[in-house]
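Q: I have two molecules that I believe assemble together. Could you output structure tokens for the complex as a whole instead of separate predictions?
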Amino acid sequence: MESMMIYMPIALATLGLIYMLVKKSWVMKQDAGDGKMKEISDHIYEGALAFLNAEYKLLAVFVVIVSILLAVVSFIVPTTHWLIVIAFIFGAVFSAFAGNIGMKIATKTNVRTTQAARTSLPNALKVSFGGGTVMGLGVAGLAVLGLTAFFIFFFWFFMGSEWTNTMDMTIVLETLAGFSLGAESIALFARVGGGIYTKAADVGADLVGKVEAGIPEDDPRNPATIADNVGDNVGDVAGMGADLFGSYVATVLAAMVLGNYVIKDMGGSISDAFGGIGPILLPMSIAGVGIIISIIGTMLVKIKSNDAKEAQVMGALNIGNWTSIILVAAACFGLVTWMLPETMQMNFFGEGLQEISSMRVFYATLVGLVVGAVISSVTEYYTGLGKKPILNIVQQSSTGAGTNIIAGLATGMISTFPSVLLFAGAIWASYAFAGFYGVALAASAMMATTAMQLAIDAFGPISDNAGGIAEMSEQEPIVRERTDILDSVGNTTAATGKGFAIASAALTSLALFAAYVTFTGIDGINIFKAPVLAMLFVGGMVPVVFSALAMNAVGKAAMEMVEEVRRQFRDIPGIMEGTGKPEYDKCVAISTEASLKEMMLPGLLTIGFPLAIAFIPMIFGMDPLAIAEMLGGYMAGVTVSGVLWAIFQNNAGGAWDNAKKSFEAGVEINGEMTFKGSEAHKAAVTGDTVGDPFKDTSGPSMNILIKLTCLIGLVIAPILGGHADETGLANNDTNVSIEMIVDSKDLAKATVNYSTIKEGKKTSEVIIFEGTQVEVEKELNNFEASLTNEAGDVIKVIEKVDISKS
Amino acid sequence: MESMMIYMPIALATLGLIYMLVKKSWVMKQDAGDGKMKEISDHIYEGALAFLNAEYKLLAVFVVIVSILLAVVSFIVPTTHWLIVIAFIFGAVFSAFAGNIGMKIATKTNVRTTQAARTSLPNALKVSFGGGTVMGLGVAGLAVLGLTAFFIFFFWFFMGSEWTNTMDMTIVLETLAGFSLGAESIALFARVGGGIYTKAADVGADLVGKVEAGIPEDDPRNPATIADNVGDNVGDVAGMGADLFGSYVATVLAAMVLGNYVIKDMGGSISDAFGGIGPILLPMSIAGVGIIISIIGTMLVKIKSNDAKEAQVMGALNIGNWTSIILVAAACFGLVTWMLPETMQMNFFGEGLQEISSMRVFYATLVGLVVGAVISSVTEYYTGLGKKPILNIVQQSSTGAGTNIIAGLATGMISTFPSVLLFAGAIWASYAFAGFYGVALAASAMMATTAMQLAIDAFGPISDNAGGIAEMSEQEPIVRERTDILDSVGNTTAATGKGFAIASAALTSLALFAAYVTFTGIDGINIFKAPVLAMLFVGGMVPVVFSALAMNAVGKAAMEMVEEVRRQFRDIPGIMEGTGKPEYDKCVAISTEASLKEMMLPGLLTIGFPLAIAFIPMIFGMDPLAIAEMLGGYMAGVTVSGVLWAIFQNNAGGAWDNAKKSFEAGVEINGEMTFKGSEAHKAAVTGDTVGDPFKDTSGPSMNILIKLTCLIGLVIAPILGGHADETGLANNDTNVSIEMIVDSKDLAKATVNYSTIKEGKKTSEVIIFEGTQVEVEKELNNFEASLTNEAGDVIKVIEKVDISKS
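A: Yes, here they are, computed for all two components at once.
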């Protein structure tokens, strides 16, 4: 069984996808309600498709451009294989496909949830969470399927499906990084573009509809209302899905890279039952098992009573979630002890090689699981209704918008304290347990329940939409009440989901950062070197500017929406009376175009800076390793600052939102009950206006920024760094010749096994005499020479030979 | 002359102080106006004194505690000398004294400016700028005087006023760091406490006075109005003064440390006309000359026409400022070529020793001057009236406070882009020219005009106060118009002054950071080590949390003020009619107490974190060098994040302020002229409320946070690091014995020159025979052994001898 382990993750992913299809057909079979409901739902579905199609067109252009660039790079740089282009395209396509599945199922489930809510709350939960499950399994299944399939393919292609050495495996993983880059590129479009879309539509719809025309939210007379509902799906479903798809793939990849590094530290090869690649297979296996565990978790999410409230629904979700987490812990224990050598050697910077038991790797995975759980509690404390920070913001609203804003900003800022200490503790602990491999596995363990997390995340916007459809199709109040319960729980899970997403992005980036160092072969990133320090500063600045650009983008896109809605109110006769039909599609088109246009500049910033840092100094002839160190400083700056700004913005935004919501049930300020419509409430609404782009656009975008930055670094790494490996071959030489002068006349033949980057594994045999010179002139990345006698027995394996660069 | 060069800075500083006294007596001789003006001025003077006295009491306690701690440390740690305690106390006292001079002259000049404004605008400028000049020269003079006096003393004490080696000089400079730490500690109280004071008084006065009671600003019936005016002096005069005093001292100190490092790189000693310490004397000399240049600059600031407007006044300031900068450039050229060896060797990390010509050091100083000038322009672009960012915020005010806030936040965030690129470029360039010595000298050159900068800075609040006194004493409108012109220019210089302050703090911190590495003897700060990376995260978080605490502190202190003002309005009969006299002193007392109380928590955060990072792992037995690297990571995190948040908050705050002010003259929004009192203006006022603590409390506090963090690191450094110097003596040994077995019978005497940390330079002579063993058992930090024959001629100098640790 052990030798087949490499196929296990792919099998489990396929199982997950099959379950997803079953679940999907079950959801689709549910009653989609009456004509009006269907009509609205169809509008949302079509709007979502319109966004997806526009996004895909832009994406196609982007993918073609990047593919050409990557192809050029792989042509010029000997260590980069052209297959990275294929991996990149598939990564992009898989992620886009996962987003497509999620968006479609979400926009089909919403109306079915409304219909189910007409019968009972348990049914409504079942349907909406069913839709979320489809989404979650689609993302997780495709991520694991794609990544492992490409790994198996590259492992075969470059290494003949057999362990050769860590250098070859590095080539495999470097090429595999293309898949991750593709996935994360889609996330840029989906998360940033989606984030701009959802808030532009929201703000645009509100500004004209609620404020100018005085009609309620989700009123079908408002031309932007469909765009607003589409936005929920675009931002919270597709955006979050692409974000976690990217994190999932990148985390597993980084852990594999560091697993390879562990093997290197252990002398370049290990013998285990898994073909000598146990440490590399482990993260994939955890991901595969995580899919099955998530399925079990989703099955546990149900309520029985029709009179259940938010607490019961939340409880049901918690049972599923916690069960998954505990099962993952158990699975990690089993997999780690089974797949890893009992003790390993790991190189700790500055401390040399250390003996690490596999149990310590298990402890590292526990660290990851704890971080995932604790960050949610931290997020909930700073953004939850009835918690102290929210009550304080409510209190400060009584003296006006200014003090409300200050209180909200301060809350977001202070929330970085426990969050960062948690991350810092996690880095420290998981590293202390098992080096950077431990850090990457902590991230992998945390991400193992991605399918479950996404199911919980996605059910929120589905329920939100269901409520909107109930409103627009004028259902009985009980329907809206039931969907409101789900929506309210969804708001909480949205906030904690953002905590999970940033935690995953942070750990992923750290793992990628560590992988980057191993790829470039630099021996660390020394910020006492001024250029490195300068880049740390620049990196720290980028998330701040990115956030500002994203916020401004929302403003600009919203203004275009406002103009269009005003035009329709003016030009379409009878629109306010309900006799004229608003042109929903025009609003959808405007949101779509504006959001995709406005994400260009932040996108360019994200991609342009690391490329500029890498290539401009290269043109001026700077030492590639010095550049690699500078780029590492930049990556660290982006990660540290990005994580801070993500937490700050997400939590400030969430806090303002719930401070505003507090007024709905009434709050006590200075001994007086205060409600909606009061001056304090107006101040709180102002705070929420500021918080909206914070929590839904710029905040979540940070995840993509930091991951994509580190991934671009990882893909550039082979260009910059020498694979300064134990074989001593520098990768910057296009031609390396091996000279092996044989010193014995007993030998008849020399067999030289070597691999070249372009041709893969090769063998060359030379009949030799004393003094024969064996030469291999190729773009080598690995060689092994053995001398055989006339009978063909290997009598001597030469590990080191002279290498002269041509 | 060259050999007397060490006394030059002290002489120039004394000259500066004498000029200050002359200027001061001139200002004091000016007419202080009529009875009512004097009365108000006296209230402000007394209020300022009340704050100073309360601050001094708290300070005294703080200084005593820190002194005891330092004394304990110097008792336990052999490399730390108890004289650091004396240096610390003097640093604190000098800084406090400088603040005292500034505060007193500012509160005496304000009323004289009002009186002068009754005659003409040129006179008003002359008086107010005269007050500023006194302040500037007081700060700069005392800073240079104190620092150089202590250097001369320690140089004599530890080295007998003669060059021995770099290790001894390190001890001198480490002890001198106490002076800098003392100065920066005062800055913490003055800048952070002062920042809280000024905004608490301002907000408190406005909330009750303007909003509740409906009386104008600066109305004498408002009990908080004196506190408000005191606040201007406390925050903008004393706070800014202490901030720059600290930067000035720290920059020069860091440059001296790195100058010593240059000497080390050149083999441990150089021979020049300056006793072999040219590179160490240079930064002090630049500072000394800078004082004289500043005096020249201040003399050029004058206007002739009584009808001058803001532009002419600004022009006069610019002439003075630019002349100073150009003169400093010329002085740097002269001093650098005169005092430095023509070529030096400097160690560049990762690149080894390089030959550096003294001209390259000069170029580095130019980099500093350019940064100082450009950062002001950048700041002015993002915060200046009529500039694009401000017009955009004005535009966004038309759709409400929410969009105004978003636009202001975005402006502050985007302003980090050019600022950080400027800093990063400066780090890179000055390092490329002359290593970290270049970075520190860039900072020194920029800081050379500190006296001039402070004069420009301080004249603003003086004019602001003068306007307030004109209002309160009911002068003719022309008086207020004239002071308003000065005040308006003062607002611009306040913004650019903040830019200068943060640039100085950033460069100072970098220089301190570099000095830190040389003190600890670590060979870099590798963020690929997980604990270092974790501390980089933690360091990045601290400025964010600090800012939040500072903002909240303003809110709390303002609320206490509000309560008091309400009480007085309620309890004092006839207060609104002008017959009852408000109890100004109570309000002053409340502001004073609240601000000092509220600064405790952020202060604790600033001091506590580096101490915890250093000492907690030490208790657990962690390797001191590993701790030193972690602490370095923390320092880098604080610096990078602190600079970002300082720029963000200062510029956002400045932008909101001027967006609000734009409405006073009227602005065009969507084709319509809009004025004060409009909805858009109200939105802009809300933005300004948020911006106030940003730009006057939390933003400027970042300067102190980053400098103090790096200084604490520097003071802890000897405890953590070994002085892993070329002599090979480890500093962690309390007892080192030197064995020198003489192998020749031709020798009659061995003279061993050595120095011990506690006793200073010593000589030991031993009559020797063949086989004699010379032993010196002391807490050594240096030795040199020479063998002399009977005639007393040195025939052999032993540079290396066996050292055995006892």
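A: One point stands out. Residues 2-720 of chain A form one domain.
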